[in-house]
Design brief:
mainly alpha, 2 domains, 0% strand, elongated, SpoIIM-like, transmembrane, Putative membrane protein SpoIIM required for sporulation
């Protein structure tokens, strides 16, 4: 069957499904299940015969949206909080996982740009970081206390200040996505270049190992969370730029709802990062190196699993239940 004929044959059905997704038409769980299975068959056909077609992407979006709607019609567990983080967010992450890859690609690119600029222009650090902060850092490195900057202030006071500052940065990364995603990328650019410059500063003065042992104790959750917040901004921005067959306002509503969930998922990691920075990072160079590595890699494995692996597990589990008629 030619693609045009395939689209013409199924167009009315897909438009009706859009109305179901938007809530304009109500369906019971059994109807939703049948609708999902029908879409899976269409998607399988499209992926086989039109793998690079926009129609295939569109059907995939519809099936994912119906899949989430099926989940929402299921009986709500007593612990709504756990359900939100253990099921709802992973399903949203799964649907928009390509934006996760985009955000990380831009992050690594921007960090490399920061490193390269600083490598060829030593004065660049003064335009990115306050000169007083740079001088203090260099003095700390010279005196053998590369992480002494984290020893100032009380534990709890530092934790609270860091927590609110990081949440505000994350909120900017997310909210600025309303400008077609460009705003989020701009904030990510600023922070990523700053990270690249800061790490290269330690490298140039022979203290890279000390900085890795200290900064990444809290930075694993903090920086990873920052990239996820950029992902949320991209989801928000592209919902305006690329509404597919939805009206632009309905696409924005869907994008706002889903991107807000993605942003909310970073809050616990931001809070834990602030606690680590306020209470643990100040002792980074005094603790055994294996303990540094244990915390850093423990955080890395945890957050990588949650955003890259766990969404696939949840999606496949519920998909199997749905196809078996378990609602």
């Amino acid at each position: 069957m030619r693609e045009v004929a395939f689209i013409k044959q199924n167009k009315e059905k897909w438009l009706e499904i859009e109305q179901v997704i938007e809530g304009k038409i109500k369906k019971n769980p059994d109807d939703l299940s049948s609708m999902y299975i029908n879409l899976v068959n269409d998607l399988s056909f499209a992926q086989t015969y039109y793998p690079k077609s926009k129609a295939t992407l569109y059907i995939n979006h519809l099936s994912t949206s119906v899949f989430q709607k099926i989940y929402k019609t299921r009986r709500i567990d007593k612990n709504r909080f756990l359900q939100f983080f253990l099921t709802e967010i992973p399903l949203v992450i799964y649907e928009y996982k390509r934006y996760l890859y985009y955000a990380f690609s831009f992050f690594f690119l921007f960090v490399c740009i920061g490193v390269l600029i600083f490598h060829y222009n030593k004065e660049f650090v003064s335009t990115i970081l306050p000169p007083s902060y740079v001088n203090m850092t260099l003095e700390n490195i010279k005196n053998g206390g590369a992480m002494d900057v984290y020893k100032g202030g009380s534990n709890w006071g530092s934790t609270i200040g860091i927590m609110f500052n990081n949440i505000m940065v994350g909120a900017k990364l997310y909210i600025f996505g309303i400008f077609g995603g460009v705003g989020s990328l701009y904030i990510l650019l600023q922070n990523s270049i700053m990270l690249g410059v800061f790490q290269y500063l330690f490298y140039e003065h022979g203290a890279l190992n000390d900085s890795l042992r200290g900064i990444w104790l809290h930075g694993t959750f903090e920086i990873f969370g920052m990239v996820i917040e950029c992902m949320a901004g991209l989801v928000l921005g592209t919902s305006i730029l690329f509404p597919k067959t939805f009206s632009r306002i309905n696409s924005l509503k869907i994008g706002m709802k889903d991107s807000l969930k993605i942003f909310a998922s970073t809050i616990p990691f931001t809070v834990v990062a602030a606690i680590i920075e306020g209470y643990v990072t100040r002792y980074a160079l005094e603790m055994p190196e294996f303990l540094n590595l244990f915390i850093i890699f423990g955080c890395l494995i945890t957050i990588t699993f949650y955003y890259f692996i766990y969404p696939n597990i949840v999606h496949n589990k519920i998909k199997k239940q749905t196809l078996n008629g378990i609602l």
